[in-house]
From TrEMBL:
One of its GO terms (cellular component) is cytosol. It comes from the Bacteria. GO terms for molecular function: FMN binding; oxidoreductase activity. This is NADH:flavin oxidoreductase/NADH oxidase. Pfam families: Oxidored_FMN. Residues 6-239 form the NADH:flavin oxidoreductase/NADH oxidase N-terminal domain. Residues 111-132 are annotated as: Disordered.
Length: 371
């Protein structure tokens, strides 16, 4: 029988006390008509909180910029009605004994033009181009960028007013902050451009203003990735020498936890350095910065999330032993679980009780409902 007790050790990060190391990964669900999360959304998160998930990170929530998202069912994180909906979510998660963070998000150049809550809005991006060179016919001024930064801070401030326990900034997967990181989408020659460290300026301003909004005792989680959904093999940093100053800039700005998104948690980030069983991305984040990290990527499944949309089924539970081994040697501090929790709200309880044989296999149909 697999010993899963290491997943259920408590952890304290600044003023955040968590009962265990299991995090519900943020997953876009698009069940919030007109951007307003209803009781079904509150129930969805509360079910996981009641079943031993240590920290809920919500789906991406759209900050106060008209082009922040491409789907009218993506939840907003501004305005009276959406915030009232999120207030109910927080209260229900807390009543179930859980802790919760909103993921504050802007899609950037990944947004389809002419879509979302405000289809006529200009698409925000660093340089007015998409990753494949399409001209968006709008390059933001420094004043525009200042408002983007302020919108993240406004969301964080509202999160604290609503009673959220912490916040996560979405800086991964080719969305707005990642657009600033990437040289294919950031061609600026002002303070927001330059080399990789120079291209962290936008993120640093976001982090600094979010810190001012949440105070010193609330941890800031920052999610980032090397890959983009449309560029699997692209990397911001090709080795630890490049990665260390990049991460250092984010940590110096105020990040407390690095949520390192990769497609499969068991894959080494720099195999040429430490081999096929070497550190994953979260492992390198912790090694290079010394701050806590969250791993994610196909936990208890055998393929990545994006493959699911390509028609591949995800099955399997055997990688939990690998996960626990890495956690026990302190490669990372927490584990974010996505599809396994989406299909099976009681996944964490089953792990705690050693009932691995009772896992529900992932079913793509679960993407169509809020089970």
């Amino acid at each position: 029988m697999t010993d899963t007790s290491s997943l259920f050790r408590p952890i304290k990060i600044k003023g955040l006390d968590l009962p265990n190391r299991i995090v519900m990964a943020p997953m876009t669900r698009a069940f919030s008509p007109k951007g307003i999360p209803g009781q079904n959304v509150a129930d969805y998160y509360a079910r996981r909180a009641a079943a031993d998930v240590g920290l809920i990170v919500t789906e991406g929530t759209l900050i106060r910029r008209e082009s922040a998202g491409e789907n009218e069912n993506y939840p907003l994180f501004w305005g009276d009605k959406p915030l009232a909906g999120w207030k109910t979510v927080v209260e229900d998660v807390h009543a179930a004994g859980g802790k919760i963070a909103p993921q504050i998000w802007h899609q950037g150049a990944a947004r389809a033009e002419g879509s979302g809550h405000f289809p006529d809005a200009n698409t925000d991006s660093p340089s007015g181009v998409t990753f494949d060179g399409k001209d968006l016919n709008y390059t933001p001024t420094e004043e525009d960028i200042a408002d983007m930064v302020a919108a993240y801070a406004d969301a964080a401030r509202d999160a604290m007013k609503l009673g959220f326990d912490t916040v996560e900034i979405h800086g991964a997967h080719g969305y707005l902050i990642d657009d600033f990181f990437w040289d294919k989408t950031n061609k600026r020659t002002d303070k927001y451009g330059g080399d990789l460290v120079g291209r962290t300026q936008f993120a640093k301003e976001v982090i600094q203003q979010v810190r001012a909004a949440v105070g010193d005792d609330t941890p800031i989680i920052f999610r980032w990735s090397q890959f983009k959904p449309y560029a699997y093999k692209d990397k911001l940093a090709h080795n630890p020498t490049e990665l260390e100053p990049f991460l250092g800039a984010l940590v110096d700005a105020g990040v407390d936890v690095l949520h390192a998104s990769q497609r499969r948690f068991w894959e080494p980030e720099f195999a040429d350095i430490d081999g096929e069983k070497g550190l994953n991305l979260a492992g390198w984040c912790k090694k290079l910065t010394g701050i806590p990290s969250i791993t994610v990527g196909s936990v208890c499944l055998d393929n990545d999330f994006l493959s699911t949309f390509g028609g591949q089924e995800a099955t399997g539970e055997s990688n939990i032993e690998n996960l626990i081994e890495r956690l026990e040697r302190e490669e990372f501090d927490m584990v974010a679980v996505g599809r396994a929790l989406l299909t099976d709200p009681e996944w964490a309880t089953k792990v705690k009780e050693g009932r691995l044989e009772d896992f529900k296999p992932f079913d793509k149909d679960s993407l169509k409902t809020l089970a």
